[in-house]
Each structure stands twice: as structure tokens, then as C-alpha cells.
Amino acid sequence: MLEKKETQTAPASIQTALERLASAEGRRVLSRVYGKKDSPAALCRCQDILYRAAEAFPGLTAPLCLISSPGRTELGGNHTDHNQGRVLAAAVRLDALAATAPSGDMSVRLVSEGYEEVRIDLSELEPLKDEEGKTAALIRGTARYLKDYGYQVGGFVAFLSSLVPPGSGLSSSACVEVLFAAIFSHLFNAGCVDWPILAKAGQYAENAYFGKPCGLMDQMACAGGGVLAIDFKDPKTPRWRRLEVDFLKKGYALAIIQTGGSHEDLTEDYAAIPTEMKAIASAFGRESLRGISPAELLAGAKQLRDYHGDRALLRAMHFVAENDRVPKMVAALKKGKIDRYLKKVDDSGISSWLFLQNVLPRGDGREQGLALALALTAQFLGKEGACRVHGGGFSGTIQAYLRPKRLPAFRDFMDSVFGPGSVLEADLRPEGVLRLA
After folding, report:
1. Cα–Cα distance, 426 to 111 (Å, whole number)
2. What is the mean pLDDT of residues 307-311?
């Protein structure tokens, strides 16, 4: 398809972007974002999306630009960010890619592969009840946040294609939230909106417009890129630092295993975790669990379980241990102690399963995909590697570290249980959301 299009004259709306992609600098950017061996395929994908955008918006005169937003993987700090905790997260090479241009007014047209077209008017930025849980809410919410922050917003057209599978635990939602914020940045603010603000715009849209409670970790990882150690002690201005990490050089591949479960209808389960943690914190006169010690939880165990229940106390115990675990994981990575780091990965997984309790979903017990995937992976790996629940939990994915030479056999084994394509290699991406062309 691309070879045929390349023999034709490119529409005026995509000529500049195609030239930038084909330039030496454009190819260097693609190599950095997608990896050297995958950059030729990435170039073809970028070209194809530009042509499809031109077909979707045939009357467009404004030049289209190309913006990429990565998915993310959580390396440590499971359900800690919403209680002023520490996390370790990274961007991955799987991304959402949008070819976009100003519409010339306040109207938005979004064409996405596999979804219905979205049309909204940004003349009104108040949240709309009938948009809750829909893509339109994320666009309107990011626009409102950026406008309130002093930035310009306007209408746009966009053709969007995503390689981040929904329900994969790679945060497809935060990925597109940050992408929408970046569209406003590049189309109307010369790309000058700093990535932490893009992340906050995405979180605001998800919380206040989409109707789903979430912390800021996912959006920061997608917006910032690389491997980030983030401290949410002050949630309004989280502190972060970037780490240089290459698991392959340390002899391990990072894989995400999709168990086939969906994150849909799990909002109540996710919301219960921060609610119960903060209920325990309130017993100590605090807004969050940050700063509460294991000794304090043990001393108050009888009263805490009587007033707030056993699960809330167990989840608080997870937070305290996990929040202390993250800096130890960071220290191990900085010192190159991969075995020490992997031991902490296993400890995180055990804590999430036994204390946080975000491995088993509600129901009759017949479907326990995460638990089964963890058990099978642990037996496959033996003493060489590590695994843990990945992301929000209850359904979706787990994470595993294993020797690259064992990856083909592992993929065949897991595919035989969970279906073809269940194992994704989570190659880390050094770049966050950015304009490619």
C-alpha cells in the first residue's frame, strides 16, 4: 500500500511531515524512539498514518504534524502514588500516534482506528454528564486544564492509531490523555508546554471529566519518558529523577503477559484501594499513609480492623512496605545490582497479592487469570528471573523478567494458555510524548 502511495504526489497537507520523516534528523529521531532495528517499520507506519489522515480530512489545507505518546510500565510502587508515595515507572516503545492539524475553529474531529468518530465543540469547556467515560471527556478535560493554566487551546482534526492494547496494563488511557494535551501544546503553543503539565492535564481530565479516580504516575511516565523515580510526597509538585537503565545489558528481557481479562467495570475496585488506605490514614489524623510506620500499624491493629476492616489494614500494610521498597529498587539499579533489584520485584508481587489484594477479581472464582499467570510464570522461571502483578490489577496483565534466550519458549508456553500474542516485549523508550514530524 505504501509503495503505491509513494509513487503518487503526496497531498499538500502531509508533504512537510513526510519530508521531515525522511530527513537524516527524522530518521535519527525514529531510531531513538523506536529502536534502530524497528525504525524502518516505524517509518512506514508514520507515512501510512499521514496518508490515512489526508484521506480522512480531504479538504484540509493546514499542514499535518505527527505526535507520538508512549505507553508505560510500572516497575515498582504498586498503588502508592495516590497516597503520596514513591513509584518507579518507565515509558515503552509501544505508542499512540496521531496525525493532527488545527481545524480553524473550536471544533474537534477525531478519527481513531477501531472506534467511532468523535466530534465535539470546545467553545464550551465545562464537563458534560453524557461524556463521562468517553474519549470526548478526555479532550475537553485536557483543554480546560491547559486553558486554566494560561495556555491557548483550539479545535483540531486528528487521525489516531495506537499500538498500546486496551486493558494491557500499559496505560492506554494515560497515553492518549497525554497525547491530547500534547496536541494542544504543539498546535497552539509552539510545543512549549512542559511535560509535567501535560501529565497533570491528562490526570485532571481522567479524574474530573472522564469520571475515573487515578494518581499521576501513569501520565508522568507517558509524558516524561525514560525510567523515572517519582516521589509524590507533595502531589502538586512531585519530585522526580531520571535513571539510565538497560535491562537487556544486564541479561534480562522485560515482558508483559496479557491474561485476557478486561479493565472495564473495575472502577469500583480501583477506587476502593485509595479510599481504604486513606481511611486508615484518617485514624492517625492524616490525609495519606505517607509517614506512618509499620510499628504504628501493628500497635493499632485491633482498633483499625474493628473500625475499618481487615482488608483496609492489609492494604495499608502493603503501602508502607511498598513505599519503602521503591528507593531500594532505585538504589539497586543505580549500583547495577540486578539480582538485588529482581528480589525486590518478587517482594513487590507477593505484597500486592497477599496484602493489597489486587490479583483476584470479584466473582465466582472461575476466572483468576492474573493469579494463574503469576503461578505459571514463577514455575517457568524457577530461580532465574522475577514476576509481579502489573499496574492496577484485578485483571489484565503481569510483568516478568527473564533471560532473552528463554523468551521464545516462554512465549509459546503462555500463548498455549492465554492465547496467541499474550506476551509483549516491553522495550523501554527514552523519549516521552513528542512531535516526530
Report:
1. 27
2. 96
Q: Give CA–CA dist 299/284, Å, rounded.
A: 12
pLDDT value at residue 207 = 93
Q: 207-235: per-residue pLDDT in tens? A: 999 988 777 889 999 999 999 999 999 98
Contact 71, 172 (CB under 8 A): yes
CB distance 375 to 368 below 8 Å: no
Three-class SS string for the chain? CHHHHHCCCCCHHHHHHHHHHHCHHHHHHHHHHHCCCCHHHHHHHHHHHHHHHHHHCCCCCCCCEEEEEEEEEEEECCCCHHHCCEEEEEEEEEEEEEEEEECCCCEEEEEECCCCCEEEECCCCCCCHHHCCCHHHHHHHHHHHHHHCCCCCCCEEEEEEECCCCCCCCCHHHHHHHHHHHHHHHHHCCCCCCHHHHHHHHHHHHHHHHCCCCCCHHHHHHHHCCEEEEECCCCCCCEEEEECCCCHHHCCEEEEEECCCCCCCCHHHHHHHHHHHHHHHHHCCCCCCCCCCHHHHHHCHHHHHHHHCHHHHHHHHHHHHHHHHHHHHHHHHHCCCHHHHHHHHHHHHHHHHHHHCCCCCCCCCCCCHHHHHHHHHHHHHCCCCEEEECCCCCCCEEEEEECHHHHHHHHHHHHHHHCCCCEEECCECCCCCEECC
Comparing CA positions, the residue from 367, 257, 269 lying closest to residue 311 is: 269
Of the pLDDT bands very low, low, confident and very high (cuts 50, 70, 90), residue 8 is low
Instruction: Round to whole Å and give the CA distance between 30 and 21.
Output: 8
Which residues, other chains included, contact 118 with Cβ-Cβ below 8 Å and sequence gap of 6+?
108, 109, 110, 112, 134, 135, 136, 139
* Residues recorded for the chain: 437
Per-residue pLDDT, 5: 47
The mean of the pLDDT values for the chain is 92
pLDDT at 10: 80
Q: How far is CA 81 from CA 161, 241, 385, in A?
A: 29, 15, 26
Its pTM stands at 0.89
pLDDT bin (cut points 50, 70, 90) of residue 276 is: very high
Q: Bridge-partner residues for 66, per DSSP?
A: 99
The span from the CA of 193 to the CA of 349, in Å, is 36
